[in-house]
Fold:
Amino acid sequence: MDFALSDDQRAIQEAARDFLTDAAGFDALRATVDGEAGFDAALWESLAGEMGFAGLMVPEAHGGLGLGAVEMALVLEELGRCLAPVPFFETAVLAVQAVLAAADEGQKSTLLPRLASGTRASFVGTAGRPTLSDGRLTGEAHFVTFAHVAQLLVVATSDQSLLVLDAAMSGIEITPVASLDRTRRFSTVRFDCAVSPEQMLGAAGSAGEAIAQTLLIGAGLLAAEQTGGAQYSLEATVDYARQRVQFGRVIGSFQAYKHMLADMMMLVEASRSAAYYAAAAIDEGSEEMAEACHVARAYASDAYRSVSGDAIQLHGGIGFTWEHHAHLFFKRARSSATWLGSADQHREALAQIILKDAA
Structure:
């Protein structure tokens, strides 16, 4: 497996970083997370329209860029560096992968162009799934990310069906809930609505494999976003170490401080390697994909929590204040570590793969 990035891939990452540096600064982030919606509509329109990133993994025949998981990982890493408060992951990764995995050609030709052009989506079914019975969907799902600004809901049901519903349809109630991470808002979604066959991806009860694949790919790619957040936490701490002076010396010159920075760097680099490996395995469709995604997700979760926590400690007193950005990354690290499966759950899944291979 070749890990060297091509010139085109480097160009995509540089374009994403340049764009987000201008469009997703911390002043805009603060204004957004302190607002009621917690959603940057202008940033979303630029990401989807101007840059076309929402359709990154959508085939060209359906209006997308037709690129792969490695390119998506590079963009997600940059989005993680700025904690972009938009439903990009929900739309461009989870919703797109669900449609690709379960929809027929007619549904793909209808849904994928909408997602690629910036129709906002949210994936329901990572924490609690509603029940589909006799054409009626009932029940509730918890911790659904960006559901309050979604236009489409991709719903995984308890009977292994996949539905695509208009978020504004009668019988759907979306209630935002307070959470630790205000850069990625959560909601509870309640259902009591009739569902037509046209709203179902594939046959009823036949989407179990598609749901599992969507969540697995999502977990592997989330590791790239987590790596981006850890990278920024490291960079900010290094910059602080070069400026802060105590006892007549910059604090970065103290041996204990340098040792902690070195440990942080090792965690970030190993996390990036694991995330890129998972993305490459997804693109190749190799037998190692599940293993690579579980490894990347477990490692990146632990690394991000450790690095963001150390960043607060190494910034001293100011790192604990509301005004400093360090706490935003720490909170994102904590919430991301439990979304799409905890690190322990991914290690358990990895252990099952290893034991199955051994048997």
In short: The CA atoms of residues 120 and 150 lie 5 Å apart. The chain has three domains: 7-117, 121-199, 208-358. DSSP finds eleven helices and nine strands in the chain.
